[in-house]
Amino acid sequence: MSRKSVVKFIDLFAGAGGLSEGFRQASSSDVEYRSVFAVEKDLPSAASYTANFGHAVFSRPIEELRRADLPKTKVDLVIGGPPCQGFSPLGKMSPTDTHHSMNRLWQFYFKVIGWVSPKAFVIENVPEFLKSYELVEAKKIAKKLGYRIVSGVLKAEEFGVPQRRRRAIVIGLRDTEPTLPIPPLFAPVKTVRDFVRTLRKKPLRFELPSNGSVQGFQKYTVSQLHIGRNPTTKSLERYRCVPPGGNRFDLMRNRPDLTPGCWKRKKTGSTDVFGRLRWDEPALTIRTEFFKPEKGCYLHPEFDRPITHWEAARLQTFPDGYFFCGSKTDIARQIGNAVPPLLSRQIAEHMKQYFSTVVTDSVVSADPVPEAVWV
Length: 375
Hints:
Elements lengths: L4 E8 L5 H8 L5 E9 L3 H11 L3 E2 L18 E4 L25 H11 L3 E6 L7 H12 L2 E9 L10 E9 L17 H4 L17 E2 L2 E5 L11 H8 L7 H7 L6 H5 L9 E2 L20 E3 L9 H7 L7 E3 L2 H10 L3 H11 L24
Parallel strand pairs: 1-2, 1-4, 2-3, 4-5, 10-11
Antiparallel strand pairs: 5-7, 6-7, 8-9, 9-12
Helix pairs in contact: 1-11
């Protein structure tokens, strides 16, 4: 029997598990990535994580996490994306400024690093994080803990994701110089058509068939999430004015009588607002309110409606069998906030080279995990 490296990891600020899903998908006959614990204070998101990974989620603020709450097993890897509201630019914020207290949550990420001493860690965030005061401080702490760091911005569309999405990635390794994954050479750019092949003109509306519940939240697979709003007659008229690749400026030119007054007064900016996707190009960034065309480029490339939750999840590269829990708004937020699993998978594939020494017996038995923590 062949021996397998089992890389046990913890996901902090886990959301619905997009980052973890990519690592899980990268598992192979020689390396298995296994999630053993997660921290996520948003209850519907924590329920989604549990539905997919089947183990404990600490669903309280990470500030309340104690060492005793962690699983009693060796942890090889820590992953996660600390909240990113307005990271402070270098030289523009004092370390004693309390205005951006949310930004200090990265410190608890490194507290966990200090507790479990993993071989590696991965931080995912917005590109602005790389130019922030917080990253400078994080690098100092990582160095004290014995880690070497590499950081940079990855473009999701260069790694097979049908979406233009830029994410900052920081990789830390103990005693080894890390590198960032390199986009595949000559790989074709994936488009909206590649991931939303099935033409479904009318979204499902009203109540969805549930697959049961997790901690009181209804559970749905991605394939069940072809849901959308029932637009008014005026909204439909507005949608028809926007061609593929177009935006609110096409509406202003074609039907000024249907254009909201605020858009008429704002002659510049927000070029993706009320935009329509193109079949044969990647989507623009899928955010948390993709079901509202006035929030971005979210009109279907062919039909006169916004994209549905199913289509947004596909453009984020979630598989059809992935579970999401909560209300329509809860699930939209989880989809938009997630790391595309396909991007995460490429990071995980790249990191396999660092885990060749993490060896377990050929017959791998799962460790017992504590019951999920809920409030």
